[in-house]
Amino acid sequence: MLEMLRPSKPELSRMMGAVTEHSQLLAYLNRIGVVKGDECRACGEDSESLEHYFCHCPAFSQIQSRYFGIDILLARRTYVASAEGN
Ligand SMILES: [Zn+2]
């Protein structure tokens, strides 16, 4: 826990990248012209953004469930189905 209060320079750089979305994720690299395309390297279903990684990427659903305490994919499918009237 104390390590979180005094991150190393590389850890601090990664945290700031996540906060500002200036990270190594393809959504950002594509936006600044470093790469072409931003399709998620883990699932290929959406743009590889921070939100996608944390909230929507099916490749990380077990991790999302463990840290957020709910099955995000199930919650999302239920929300979409209810929005579509199913
Ligand atoms: Zn993905």
From TrEMBL:
Official protein name in the record: Reverse transcriptase zinc-binding domain-containing protein
